[in-house]
Design brief:
Low-confidence stretches: 1-20, 963-970
Number of helices: 29
Shape: flat
Largest sheet: 8 strands, mixed, barrel
Strand content: 15-25%
Distance between the termini: 52 Å
Number of strands: 32
Strand order of the largest sheet: 24-25-27-28-29-30-31-32
Length: about 950
């Protein structure tokens, strides 16, 4: 929205009633107790200002405002009133209230003096305004000079735009700025620069974005509009008919966009915006940004012109290089004819005198280079199995490395298959390709000449030269010459290969004899050593498999073997009994986290040593892993022996010790499982001893507990409940019940809270308190929550009035994708996100403050608001609560129930404090657990607006109509 539609700002200056104000100066010439008010209005700017003496009444200021509109009428001995227009057109009014009557001559003299003082004051203000305007002009001129310098510099485009951004930021608030270029021919735009504190979009200056792909972009609307736009982005969209689209970034409190023009064409735009402060930009900023935008466009034009010049210079340089290369090739072509005769004799000689194949290939290349253009030269040979192609020698300007390959349809394979030479230019090669006879491989040659190599009338390879330049072409004479060379190469190649094979065979035979002799010499020595080493390794592996590597104690595997033996003896000898002690160090993780894992290992070794010293000599002490140990005690008379031994172990462990230079006071929790014929394996005994250990740890640590039938029944119950819980997740056992939330004064329903219920196949309808613990321990409660959320989304999609709130545990807030997943579920169901609330606890907020704040803001931006549940039972502090976008506080039912009865004073004080806190934050409250009319009245009297409880309605599987709820609550 343009600033033209906004009213002129009214600025009151020199009205702070300081001792140095204009009114104070005028008051000094009046009797004590006089009051002075001066007002003036500049019609050129529409700005009003004024000054008043200390103690001046509002009525006196109002009188001065009236005088601005019309001249005074009549005279009064206790007042001085005057209004006039200065030579510059400024309207001035003075109103004075005198403490008593003053002579008319004195009033006239004072008024003449006052008019001169006021005129002088206005002249000084105008001078100050001109100085400020001149300073702004100088800053603008300096900024434009800097932009011009940047445009002429050698900086990269991104660096240049970043520095221009810094210059603009010195003239106005421009923390969030981006620049786009618009191509009206292709109807596309490019983001040349994008800097934003909130939007994470990364500009891709080379990427064209079609305008049709951005129908809801405010930037596109600015380019279509062709005039500057300013105001909140939401109002701009409404004005231009642009729909809200989250893909184009968040809304801003103030948005200023100015198009960049080249003559009468829109060629881009520059935009600045503020997300947290409204009214940042005005007419001055718009004019300034328009001025800067054209200079930025000039800078971009200069930058692109410089790039175009550099590109043309580079093209010309490359053209000159190609011309020079072609000229050199032509010179080589002329010299080749002169060296032809001499080269023929050299070729015949090389086939006899070359020492190795590699040397032979190199010398052949030198000879061919003297005869014709052979800067690109290679020799290809068919592999021994006849299925592949090898390149023992290759020199090429473009294809530096030629690797062996399977026979295919290249030009080389074409020569091998036909057994005749091939001389082909680019046109001939294209014709062969179009006929499907060949398929070019590697860089495309302008002229290609290949001649087959023969051995015993069979083609064994190809010798090839090629040219990449139109200036170099091979002739039929070149083909004949290369054919003659290929004949001599074939002869030399056969001879060299035979010699190399013979030398290689002799060398290989000698190497095998020598290697075999050494192997036989070492075999006897190594055999004995290997036998001894194998025995030692077997012993070591056996020990490692049965012992803990850190403490040297027996491990779980060895303990289970001994338990199996103990069970066998106990079954065969009815009087034999034994017990298993399961031990876990208390707060061992604290040692690891504070002094390091090496210190933790030291503590584990010391704990193992103390346990061994505390038990009997025949008892087995094993480390199961981590900070867990197990003790097998056999041949005991009863549980008293096991408990006495457990106490002895706990006392030994409780003695202080020094670990990593610190005195540590370790303790442990210990569980005991006694032998019973129902046990079939040692693992079952360990399991029950482990359960007893957790019972001891829950009872306060540093103690022991004996596994009994109650523990067994509880473990079985939890195991069965967990299994039922898993089956219910896969079925339809979980349902959402809805309890109404009403307005306390008229019982009007404003929403419902969705409560989880489990329709158990045997135990009936269960509330969360009966299975929430098992669900949290097993991690299944998250899946149950999402089932509930899905049912709520279906209910919201059916329509209706009021919102529905769902409870969100801290576990969900630890998941980074919770908000996105919930929003996707809303979209998939077609539900209205504005009718959904989430209820969270203080623990969820404080567990990870940055993540919780980010998640709540994301949900709120899509219409999902947050309510703080059970408020008053946790921190309940303004120091953290004001940081979060909370819509409502739910007062815990413990305080609501206490409003009536003995705890009334304390509960009233707490609820009143919560109401005060909510009022400070501008949020409302809901009282939970309202069951009586007296509680409702008390909450209403304390300022609470809404309530929830059995007084208004019980949780139901279907949302009850308003009339039925009124009947029930009435």
């Amino acid at each position: 929205m343009s600033n033209r539609s906004r009213p002129k700002a009214v600025r009151i200056v020199d009205a702070g009633y300081g001792r140095d104000s204009l009114a104070d100066t005028l008051q000094e010439a009046l009797p004590p107790g006089a009051e002075v008010a001066v007002l003036w209005r500049d019609p050129s700017t529409g700005i009003s200002a004024g000054s008043a003496s200390p103690g001046a009444t509002s009525a006196l200021a109002s009188r001065a405002e009236v005088l601005l509109q019309r001249s005074p009428v009549g005279h009064h001995s206790h007042r001085i009133e005057s209004a006039w227009t200065t030579a510059e057109g400024v309207r001035v009014a003075i109103a004075v209230q005198l403490p008593g009557a003053v002579a008319a001559e004195v009033r006239e003299i004072w008024l003449t003096m006052a008019q001169r003082v006021v005129v002088s004051h206005l002249v000084a203000l105008r001078t100050l305004a001109r100085a400020e305007s001149l300073e702004k002009s100088e800053r603008l001129q300096q900024a434009l000079f800097e932009i011009a310098d940047l445009a002429g510099s050698d900086l990269e485009l991104a660096d240049m735009l970043r520095r221009i951004h810094t210059v603009v930021a010195g003239l106005m608030y421009a923390a969030n700025l981006y620049i786009v270029l618009y191509d009206d021919v292709r109807d596309s735009l490019r983001f040349l620069y994008f800097a934003d504190q909130v939007d994470t979009y990364v500009a891709e200056p080379e990427r064209d974005i079609a305008i049709d792909d951005m129908p809801n972009s405010v930037t596109v609307a600015l380019l279509r509009h062709g005039e500057p736009l300013q105001g909140p982005s939401e109002l701009i969209r409404d004005r231009l008919g642009v729909a809200r689209d989250a893909r184009h970034g968040p809304d801003s409190e103030d948005w200023l966009g100015v198009p960049m023009r080249r003559e009468d064409r829109i060629c881009g735009a520059i935009v600045v915006q503020s997300y947290d402060r409204p009214d940042v930009y005005g007419e001055e900023e718009r004019a300034l940004l328009s001025f800067v935008a054209q200079h930025i466009l000039t800078a971009l034009d200069r930058f692109h012109a410089r790039e175009e010049l550099e590109r043309r210079v580079e093209e010309r340089t490359q053209a000159l290089q190609l011309s020079n290369r072609d000229l050199q090739a032509e010179i080589i072509e002329r010299q080749r004819a002169e060296r032809l005769q001499r080269a023929l004799f050299r070729i015949a000689e090389l086939s006899i005198t070359s020492e190795t194949l590699e040397r032979f290939y190199t010398q052949v290349h030198d000879v061919v280079s003297d005869l014709l253009y052979a800067r690109n030269f290679y020799i290809a040979l068919v592999s021994d199995d006849g299925q592949g192609l090898e390149f023992p020698y290759s020199i090429d300007e473009r294809d530096a490395n030629r690797v062996a390959r399977k026979l295919a349809s290249g030009l080389t394979e074409y020569v091998i298959a036909r057994g005749r030479a091939l001389l082909a230019d680019r046109k001939r090669i294209a014709a062969l390709e179009s006929q499907g006879l060949v398929r070019s491989r590697g860089s495309l040659a302008h002229c290609w000449l290949g001649v087959p190599l023969f051995h015993n009338e069979s083609v064994v390879g190809v010798i090839t030269v090629q040219s990449y330049s139109p200036a170099i072409n091979f002739s039929v004479r070149d083909q004949e010459l290369l054919t003659f060379v290929a004949h001599h190469i074939s002869i030399g190649l056969a001879r060299k290969q035979a010699q190399d094979r013979l030398v290689s065979a002799h060398a290989e035979l000698e190497q095998r004899v020598d290697s075999r002799t050494r192997e036989l010499a070492q075999a006897n020595t190594e055999l004995l050593a290997q036998i001894g080493e194998r025995l030692r390794v077997e012993q070591q592996l056996t020990h490692q498999a049965m012992h803990d590597a850190l403490t040297g104690l027996p491990n779980r595997s060895q303990l289970l073997d001994r338990l199996a033996q103990a069970i066998t003896r106990a079954r065969s000898e009815q009087e034999s009994t034994f017990a298993v002690l399961f031990l876990d160090l208390d707060r061992f993780k604290l040692v690891n986290d504070s002094v390091g894992h090496s210190a933790g290992d030291e503590l584990l070794v010391e704990a193992g040593r103390r346990i061994v010293e505390a038990v009997r000599e025949d008892d087995t002490v094993a480390r199961l892993g981590g900070d867990e140990y197990a003790i097998l005690i056999e041949d005991i008379d009863g549980p008293e022996v096991a408990e006495e031994l457990a106490q002895r172990v706990l006392r030994a462990l409780g003695e202080p010790c020094w670990i990593a230079g610190r005195e540590v006071f370790p303790s442990a929790s210990l569980g005991i499982a006694l032998w019973h014929p129902r046990y079939r394996t040692g693992a079952e005994l360990l399991r029950d001893a482990d359960a007893a250990m957790y019972r001891a740890k829950a009872a306060g640590r540093d103690r022991c507990a004996v596994f009994d039938e109650a523990m067994r029944e509880e473990a079985v119950r939890i195991l069965d409940l967990e299994a039922d819980l898993r089956r219910a997740i896969n079925g339809d056992g979980f349902v959402a019940f809805y309890q109404p939330i009403v307005r306390l004064d008229d019982h009007r329903v404003i929403g419902h809270e969705a409560l989880l219920r489990w329709r158990h196949e045997r135990r009936g309808l269960l509330t969360p308190s009966e299975f929430i613990g098992v669900g949290e321990d097993s991690g299944l409660i998250e899946e149950v929550d999402w089932i509930l959320y899905g049912q709520v989304m279906e209910e919201l999609a059916r329509g209706g009035e009021g919102y529905i709130s769902v409870n969100v545990s801290p576990r969900h807030f630890r998941s980074g994708d919770f908000a996105d997943r919930l929003l996707r579920m809303i979209d998939d169901a077609g539900a209205d996100p504005h009718r959904l609330r989430i209820e969270i606890t203080e623990v969820a907020l404080l567990d990870d403050v940055p993540r919780a704040l980010r998640m709540l803001r994301t949900l709120r931006s899509h219409g999902v608001l947050a309510q703080l549940d059970d408020f008053g039972t946790g921190f309940s502090a303004l120091s953290y609560l004001h940081r979060f976008p909370i819509e409502c506080l739910k007062i815990d039912q413990s305080f609501v129930s206490g409003l009536i009865g003995d705890a009334q004073p304390e509960s009233v004080a707490v609820v009143r404090a919560i109401q005060a806190l909510a009022g400070t934050l501008g949020i409302h409250t809901i009282g939970e657990g309202v069951e009586t009319e007296a509680q409702r009245a008390a909450l209403r009297e304390l300022g609470c607006t809404y309530g929830q409880g059995y007084l208004f309605g019980y949780p139901a599987e279907r949302i009850q109509p308003q009339a039925l709820l009124r009947a029930v609550s009435g």
